[in-house]
Amino acid sequence: MEREEFIKIFDETESNLSSVDGDSAYLGLQIIAKYTKNLIHCAEHDVIYSEDINTLCEAGITKEDVTQLRIMNWGIEGDSLYSFV
Predict the structure, then answer these.
(1) Helix axis angle, 63-71 relative to 24-32, nearest 10°?
(2) Under a CB-based contact definition with an 8 Å cutoff, are residues 83 and 47 in contact?
(3) Are 6 and 53 in contact (CB under 8 A)?
(4) Sign of the dihedral through C-alpha 21, 29, 81, 56
(5) For residues 57 and 69, what is the distance between their CA atoms, to the nearest angstrom?
(6) Do the Cβ atoms of 20 and 75 come closer than 8 Å?
(7) Distance separating alpha carbons of residues 76 and 42, to the nearest angstrom
(8) Could you give the maximum distance between any two Cα atoms of the chain, in Å?
(9) Rg over CA atoms, the chain
(10) What is the mean pLDDT of the chain?
(11) Which residues contact 82 (CB under 8 A, 6 or more apart)?
(12) pLDDT score recorded for residue 83
């Protein structure tokens, strides 16, 4: 997957936390763990920042996993994924 496609999926997919069965931050980290061992890069008051989207694209993240991350309300800031906790 190319970076542009990753971003397009995020732009076109609505988050839907009501459809998520569990902790969206934890479930998202489980998806990200399929592609990298560097799950949390930093944290702020109520946000965790995870892997760079270029790294995930190079690791072969699927469209389905990108869509699931967005449904779970993950976002992109700069080049990194983030989630509220």
Answers:
(1) 160
(2) yes
(3) yes
(4) negative
(5) 14
(6) no
(7) 14
(8) 32
(9) 12
(10) 96
(11) 47, 48, 49, 50, 74, 75, 76
(12) 97
The alpha-helical segments, DSSP class H, found in 33-79 are 53-58, 63-71
pTM of the model: 0.93
pLDDT in tens, 18-51: 899 999 999 999 999 999 999 999 999 999 999 9
Tokens read off for 28: 């998202």
Residues of the chain with pLDDT > 70: what percent?
100
Output DSSP code: residue 17.
Answer: G
8: Cβ–Cβ under 8 A, 6 or more apart, which residues?
none
- Residues 76/53, Cβ–Cβ less than 8 Å: yes
Length of the chain: 85
